[in-house]
User: Which sequence fits this backbone?
């Protein structure tokens, strides 16, 4: 695999090869509290070690601005109307309040969000074999985003794949291999491991800003499914990307989001999609280190399959 856009040949996986990969990864799934999945790997000792990553006292948000404009890549934009005091619609005297409300498609292809373990249904089940009929009109009865209601705090590691390849971004359709991840570790002098929050930059946000939006649902850069084997072997706790983590078109015959299936359904990894690393990457480069304290505070959304997030990296 050379990282070129997916097509015919060994870059693609047949459905049978994908199912074989799933079986191989099955023995690497986390044990313990099934509701938290791989988050159980973040122990108090991991949090204490992550706190020691703070040396410069510099912080940066990893969530992109909520997108409210309809574009080719955002056909179902968030709505953010003002509902209270605005110019020309308030009393001249006395008390009033500015108010607003937000409505959004949590799992769209623009806004930064966290995927809960109930998000992926595959062959009629959720992570850990939980029946898919636990998803109801009232919300998810199991594996909801509230499993992370007390927050996710740990050591974040950013691997910058465009930096490794000497390009500003990966083109839509290109993919990241396990070899890329290992080479980025070596080039950046960092190593991700058990309990870490791994972030992989493909440059999606920079391309979006410089070239304009496109239909990311149809074509985008992401991880090759085989790369998930390395993540499983290293026992990470969370995976995040500035794209969808899955590349498109899919690399697996008949499976649209193979990385989501492997990571969420099979390995119990909470995913963070469509983050923004364009502030973090230059900060890491300037500091000469690519690991940091990361704090994620999901909404307490009962039964939620995910929620918008703005993770904070502190170096």
Assistant:
């Amino acid at each position: 695999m050379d990282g070129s856009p997916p097509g015919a040949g060994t870059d693609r996986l047949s459905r049978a090869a994908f199912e074989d990969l799933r079986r191989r990864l099955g023995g690497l799934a986390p044990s313990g509290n099934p509701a938290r999945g791989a988050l159980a790997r973040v122990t108090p000792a991991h949090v204490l070690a992550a706190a020691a990553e703070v040396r410069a006292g510099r912080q940066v948000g990893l969530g992109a601005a909520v997108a409210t404009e309809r574009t080719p890549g955002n056909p179902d934009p968030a709505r953010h109307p003002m509902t209270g005091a605005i110019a020309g619609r308030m009393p001249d005297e006395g008390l009033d309040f500015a108010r607003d409300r937000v409505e959004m498609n949590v799992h769209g292809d623009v806004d930064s969000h966290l995927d809960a373990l109930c998000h992926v249904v595959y062959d009629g089940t959720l992570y850990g074999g939980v029946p898919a009929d636990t998803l109801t009109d009232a919300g998810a009865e199991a594996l909801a985003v509230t499993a992370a209601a007390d927050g996710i705090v740990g050591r974040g590691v950013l691997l910058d794949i465009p930096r490794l390849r000497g390009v500003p971004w990966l083109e839509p359709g290109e993919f990241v291999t396990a070899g890329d991840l290992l080479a980025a570790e070596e080039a950046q002098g960092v190593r991700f491991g058990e309990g870490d929050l791994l972030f992989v930059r493909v440059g999606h946000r920079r391309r979006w800003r410089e070239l304009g939006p496109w239909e990311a649902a149809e074509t985008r850069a992401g991880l090759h499914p085989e790369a998930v084997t390395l993540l499983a072997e290293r026992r990470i706790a969370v995976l995040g990307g500035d794209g969808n983590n899955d590349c498109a078109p899919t690399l697996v015959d008949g499976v649209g989001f193979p990385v989501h299936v492997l990571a969420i359904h099979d390995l119990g990894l909470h995913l963070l999609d469509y983050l923004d690393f364009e502030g973090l990457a230059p900060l890491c480069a300037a500091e000469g280190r690519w690991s940091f304290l990361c704090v994620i505070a999901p909404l307490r959304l009962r039964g939620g399959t995910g929620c918008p997030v703005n993770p904070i990296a502190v170096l």
Notes: Residues 15-75+106-314 form a domain with the Glucose Oxidase; domain 1 fold (CATH 3.50.30.50). The chain has eight helices and 13 strands. The longest strand covers residues 152-160. The CA atoms of residues 287 and 315 lie 8 Å apart.
